[in-house]
Amino acid sequence: MRNLRTLSVSILAIFSAFAFLAGCGGSGSTQPPNTIVSTGNNVAPISVDGGPPGDYADAAFISVTVCVPGTSTCQAVDNILVDTGSSGLRILSSALTVALPQQNATDGNPVFECFPFESGYTWGPVQTADVEIAGEKAGSTPIEAVGTSTAVPEGCLDFDLPPSNNLDELGANGILGVGLFAQDCGSGCPTTIYYECPPSGCVGISQSLALQVPNPVSLFTTDNNGVIVELPAVSGGEAPTLSGSLVFGIGTQSNNALGSATVYGADPEFGSFTTSFNGTAYPESFIDSGSNGYYFLSSSVSGIPGCSDAPGFYCPSSTANLSATNEGTNGAGGKVNFSIANADTLFNSNDNAFADLGGEGSDSPPYFFDWGLPFFFGRNVFVAIQGQNAPGGTAPYWAY
Amino acid sequence: MFKRQAGSVRSRVLVAGVALLSLVIALPAGASLGGDTASIEADQVHMQGTRKMTAVQNYTVHEIQGAAGTVVREYVSSSGKVFAVAWRGPWPPDLHQLLGSYSAQYVDAVKAQSGTRMGRRPLIVEQPGLVVHSGGHPRAFAGVAYVPENLPQGVRAEDIQ
Fold it and tell me: Would you call B48 exposed, middle or buried from its count of C-beta atoms within 10 A (0-12, 13-18, 19+)?
């Protein structure tokens, strides 16, 4: 009964929202433009430019340098996806020209990793590198070298996720996970993530925190408590290219102050907060630069039609102007205006940055809002890493 | 917050005033979605989990709390067939086993949706014989899978959670 009532209330509220917002100027019109820092030893350029395939919608890319630990044998790898939804650096082995040392278990067997994401998994050996971005350095850092001839173990295949193990599948040379956590898997890591791989075959292991692939930012000497993703607003709703910055550290230098940003505490176990939309709370919501749109509810619940060409995306006949409220675990709350345009129309253009791209999340509980990259356009988003001291609240948190 | 949701299901059941059973049974492996209760027992053994059975209206929910922290709920009709599964937790479950004979259909459908424009996002499959919604991020995954034709009378998609 509760769900049925929620559904009818949602549909009613959506129609009211359309009617109310029809006369407004669209999302973000009342916000002052965000300031994007471009200089500093803690600042790396990022761009939303279609990436390696040339038409990857709403993905931000960065260049990362990896070195054989303790040496000057280094390589810059560009087109690495900036992902605040995960932690850890993963680079396609096909994009690596430096020979990085393999991480081995105490019994001498090489360690491999199967890392599940929302829409695919990466599989490959864990290797060690000095990781350099802008003027920052994380020494002897475990990373995942994605793509290997070693067979994918059953425990990994059993996720039934698509592989993201080569350039075609990943659409990027790698993933830079600069999310809420210091390690990729955490304590109590199940045996389906890390494996020891003797010649006889891979066996799942429960990897200790110290040996897991870490968020490289947490290993920087300074500026190690989080990042700021800074991207400009998209004039006219879409653009071929957007340029911005990934800034390291929060409140550690003159160029990364929290300022007037509101801190939204994130659940320390699941990395989520609550989004309320049309009177219903969705407590498993999250902000994720690695998702390439606003993903929420389903057509039947949101009332926004799906697409005929792009399955899973929303295709309203005219742009839907919506609003939701985010609430952190610290009780802070704030309204977010956002718009959903017709994805079939957007995808027919030559642009790569779309401010109003969205699609379905889930039409059954647990409902969630996945605030993907369009959320970052015109809004500096702070991501504070669990266990680190950060201004304005207890990490993990997002602030914007 | 996964725990909070689990609590709301429990309270609903108490209000309904129906039986609550706990079982620990080991049986051979088998499929789940579309399978019978023996397949759920196989899932429980596979997940090294504890299981709780709850009767709701005209179906039964088998909740398995896995050793890896992920909770799986399997929905069984009065005729003894699994018509839906749902999962939530820090990491994805063994979806291959949970989907059973529907696994190949799901994997093929997801593969057919790939494209550079499509990017990284929740996986949604809505076909006449199979609906799967899967999403989340590392440390918090959730999803549902069901066979629309097999939903018992009066059961809605939003009842599966």
Answer: exposed
